[in-house]
Amino acid sequence: MIPRASWPLTALAFAALLSATTIWAEAAVTLVNRDDKDHKLTVIEESGAKTTEHVLKPSQVLEGICEKGCVIRINDSEEEEYELEAGDKVSIEEGYLYYDEPAGTQQGAGGTPPAAPGAGAEPKKP
Description:
Structural class: alpha+beta
Radius of gyration: 18 Å
Order of helices and strands: HEEEEEEEE
Distance between the termini: 54 Å
Strand order of the largest sheet: 4-1-7-8
Number of domains: 1
Number of strands: 8
Strand content: 25-35%
Helix content: 10-25%
Number of helices: 1
Shape: globular
Largest sheet: 4 strands, mixed
């Protein structure tokens, strides 16, 4: 049991932890597979130093990736590579990657909107 005198400090520590978790979740990329088939994703971070592979099933959501930005490759195709910034929310539709929110409402790294012109636009290719 936590002594009564420590309650304010405990509450403050909990609030800080919750806030840090929320900031982390907002800074990472969220990706949804809106297709009716699986897609293999290769996440390339840190200029190629870190590579992770995922298989996304239909309607599956992948969260918490690309905290500092990354390149996403779909189905091992070098022609289907997309450069994403932390905070981007994207989805796969008909084998292509698209932003889920208009450029004015979605914030990329550093609070700047992504380069794409709006909802439904593809992220820029590297």
